[in-house]
Amino acid sequence: MAELHTGVGRQRGARPWPRPRRIATLSVHTSPLHQPGTGDAGGMNVYILEVARRLAEADVEVEIFTRATSGDLPPVVETAPGVHVRHVTSGPLEGLTKEELPGQLCAFTAGVLRAEASRPPGHYDLIHSHYWLSGQVGWLAKERWGVPLVHTAHTLAKVKNAQLAAGDRPEPKARVIGEEQVVTEADRLVANTTVEARDLIDRYDADPARVAVVEPGVDLDRFRPAPGNRDRVAVEARRRLGLPATGYVVAFVGRIQPLKAPDVLIRAVAALRERDPVLADQVTVVICGGPSGSGLDRPTALMELAGTLGVADRVCFLPPQTGDDLPALYRAADLVAVPSYNESFGLVALEAQACGTPVVAAAVGGLVTAVRDQVSGVLIDGHDPVDWARTLGRLLPDRAHRAELARGAARHARNFSWHRTASGLLTVYGEAIAAHRARLASELACGPAMSCSW
Q1: Of 250, 277, 286, the residue nearest 377 (C-alpha)
Q2: ∠ at Cα 258 (252, 259), nearest 5°?
Q3: φ/ψ of residue 361, rounded to 5
Q4: Against a cut of 0.85, is the pTM above it?
Q5: Do 197 and 209 touch, CB atoms closer than 8 A?
């Protein structure tokens, strides 16, 4: 495979790439203002808003276009100086699922184009689309505005279908085709990890020269180890969240759907009870999040599963946490589990490690980058509950090993920041703008009667 470009910052002496003044960010199916952990809101929402803030701090204005889902929303919300979220009316305000949104792409695109038409010519220097639905809109907008399109997939249908969780619905053919079109038309494709970059190249025939790896980050001011004795910090955090002050806490944070596999953690506790009932009775599993995707078909499925397996007394359910309560949950836990069948990156794993909590994760997708095996946590091959029970049974009683992993987790997380991500994206943006300008210059030099090859 051709060498991939890593857009994590320009090397000394490299070409000074053009810098965009203003970016149109597209997020059709979910707003960065929505609470992560429920519905369709997750790591992508965090990514878009955090990156936008860091770009604005670097004097790049960002306007985020998203679909209006409530009549109470103002047309435009300023979330930070230089960052505006524009709500585009396209279809019913409520009641549409993500799967129904392709039918509203024309209306959404019209809203985006009208917003730009009210501005002076050349208002946006670049479009950055997130997820394939936004990529479809970005493809049309880039042709209309004459600017480059940078696209981040976040998840890929072919990858998800190849690693489908039991009981989950495969992604439809229409999405696969839509992703293939966006991959062909985008000027640059931003992958979160080299694993995702290889998927774009191997599964979607993406041009390696147009694929750049820019790793996501974490808010290191918000997610950090709390000062003071770790045990006292954990007890205080548990008291705040209504969790048991003693015993072990293993937390799952995210949307409740088969893809995220929280059932693996519940089954693992049941397997641990068979293996070591004394230890299992000291474990509290915290499931923090709301139903999403096919998980909405049976929103009480995890509660029913815990009851059927006889571990309902060991499982605690919490709604998505906001503000300081999310870092508190990470600090309250002895381990954070990320058993997903696929993750483009896995921001939960990074947030937990930044708080100094080791992570036990499935060795899939971006998690092999987000978690450094045996240093900041443990990666597990597969989703067999017995394997997960064996790992939990080994780690939880081993206080010294967990303390070592906790230190490694905090160190590992410090390698990632949203400023680093924004810097990498600015490099990619500059390359896209420079290539776009060169292409226009070539077309002008050739003239209408000649054919250029480039």
Answers
A1: 250
A2: 80
A3: -135, 155
A4: yes
A5: no
Cβ within 8 Å of residue 207, ≥6 positions away: none
Tokens standing for residue 291: 């139903």
The rounded distance, in Å, linking the Cα atoms of 362 and 216 is: 19
pLDDT per residue of the chain (454 residues) written in tens, 0 to 9: 445 555 543 333 456 789 999 999 999 988 888 766 666 667 898 999 999 999 999 999 999 999 988 778 899 999 999 999 999 998 887 777 778 888 899 999 999 999 999 999 899 999 999 999 999 999 999 999 999 999 999 999 999 999 888 778 899 999 999 999 999 999 999 999 999 999 999 999 999 999 999 999 999 999 999 898 888 999 999 999 999 999 999 999 998 989 899 999 999 999 999 999 999 999 999 999 988 655 456 668 899 999 999 999 999 999 999 889 999 999 999 999 999 999 989 999 999 999 999 999 999 999 999 999 999 999 999 999 999 999 999 999 999 999 999 999 999 999 999 999 999 999 999 999 999 999 888 888 876 555 454 3
Which residues, including other chains, have CB under 8 Å from residue 167's CB and lie 6 or more apart? 258, 294
Residue 167 region by backbone torsions, left for phi larger than 0, else alpha for psi between -120 and 50, else beta: left
What is the C-alpha to C-alpha distance for residues 195 and 296, in angstroms, rounded to an integer? 29
Scanning 41-189, the segments in alpha helix (DSSP H) are 43-57, 105-117, 131-145, 157-162, 173-185
How is residue 314 annotated by DSSP? Answer: G
Which DSSP state fits 3?
A: P
C-beta separation of 359 from 371 below 8 A: yes
